[in-house]
């Protein structure tokens, strides 16, 4: 009997030690996640300060590429697995310019900014006109040129010898396409993340037509339209209700990131989404384009993304399993790894 009790006590002691180890591991993951969210809030404050200094035109974060040693990144969302150690010396272009999609802002990239900086690379985040901490009234943004202005101004002011890798999410594919048409010599690669990669004469909205219906029908019937100039005038923007956004965009994203998005997303200017984009073979056609597909996406279904790839023939296609429409939230480690892989392609 006594031996049984001692045996049971030893077993309980082992189980308790195992439980403590698991609890320590879980606490570490939660602490790492909390740290990243604090960085997101810090980034938001930083953006607000920059918006006052630069009239809301641009927010930026630049990681040091000269004083910090390259090291493998331990992603707190990867359960201890490490991202492969990419040599920064093999990355001829070390600056990524991250462009958000509809309703989002520079804030949505906070995990990717942290990952790239940990990989000794630079990350620039742009608030498009009327988005994030750019305080322009979205109802006044009627063209793709206006919407893309912060991105265009940033590229225009790059040093002559410098070029960048553009990364566009969702409808952010339209501004990076517009930029690629304007400055093919300044953009080494353009990466479309479940994005609107359009053809000449196509509207960004057209990519979403299978989910949202035709542009004409959407303009007449959608309950999400905003009439900034009065009901008797054409709609100026749109914004989905929170429950719709959760189902469309965030079906695999962590709850904290969903909460961050719910308080940060802004209405989408409608004009740029309905404008037919002019793209030429001589300029846009010479650009190196890559596409990242998200395979659990409810906003832009995998079938639609396959169609986009077939119709536009990017140089390379990458796929992220288990990602919703926002891989920077749901699969940040996978997206980070893909960005580095594309950057290394000769």
Automatic annotation (TrEMBL):
Residues 96-333 form the AB hydrolase-1 domain. Keywords: Hydrolase. Residues 9-18 have a biased composition (Basic and acidic residues). This is AB hydrolase-1 domain-containing protein. InterPro entries: AB_hydrolase_1, AB_hydrolase_fold, MES/HNL. Residues 1-28, 55-79 are annotated as: Disordered. The keyword Hydrolase applies. It comes from the Eukaryota. One of its GO terms (molecular function) is methyl indole-3-acetate esterase activity. One of its GO terms (biological process) is salicylic acid metabolic process.
């Amino acid at each position: 009997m006594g031996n049984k009790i001692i045996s049971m006590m030893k077993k309980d002691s082992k189980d308790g030690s195992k439980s403590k180890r698991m609890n320590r591991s879980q606490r570490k993951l939660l602490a790492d996640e909390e740290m990243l969210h604090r960085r997101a809030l810090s980034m938001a404050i930083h953006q607000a300060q920059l918006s006052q200094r630069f009239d809301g035109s641009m927010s930026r974060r630049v990681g040091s590429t000269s004083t910090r040693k390259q090291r493998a990144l331990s992603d707190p969302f990867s359960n201890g697995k490490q991202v492969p150690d990419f040599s920064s010396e093999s990355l001829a272009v070390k600056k990524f310019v991250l462009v958000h999609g509809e309703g989002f802002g520079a804030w949505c990239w906070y995990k990717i900014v942290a990952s790239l900086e940990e990989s000794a690379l630079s990350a620039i985040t742009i608030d498009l006109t009327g988005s994030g901490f750019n305080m322009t009234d979205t109802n006044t943004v009627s063209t793709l040129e206006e919407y893309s202005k912060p991105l265009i101004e940033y590229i225009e002011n790059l040093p002559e010898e410098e070029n960048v890798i553009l990364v566009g999410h969702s409808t952010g594919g339209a501004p990076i396409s517009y930029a690629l048409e304007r400055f093919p010599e300044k953009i080494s690669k353009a990466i479309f993340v479940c994005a609107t990669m359009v053809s000449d004469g196509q509207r960004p909205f057209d990519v979403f037509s299978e989910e949202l219906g035709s542009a004409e029908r959407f303009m007449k019937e959608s309950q999400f339209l905003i009439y900034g100039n009065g009901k008797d005038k054409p709609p100026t923007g749109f914004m989905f209700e929170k429950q719709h956004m959760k189902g469309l965009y965030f079906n695999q994203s962590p709850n904290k990131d969903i909460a961050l998005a719910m308080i940060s997303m802004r209405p989408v200017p409608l004009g740029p989404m309905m404008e037919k984009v002019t793209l030429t073979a001589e300029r846009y056609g010479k650009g190196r384009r890559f596409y990242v597909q998200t395979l659990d996406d409810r906003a832009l279904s995998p079938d639609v993304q396959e169609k986009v790839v077939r119709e536009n023939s990017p140089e390379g296609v990458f796929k992220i399993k288990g990602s919703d429409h926002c891989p920077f939230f749901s699969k940040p480690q996978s997206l980070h790894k893909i960005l580095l892989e594309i950057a290394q392609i000769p």
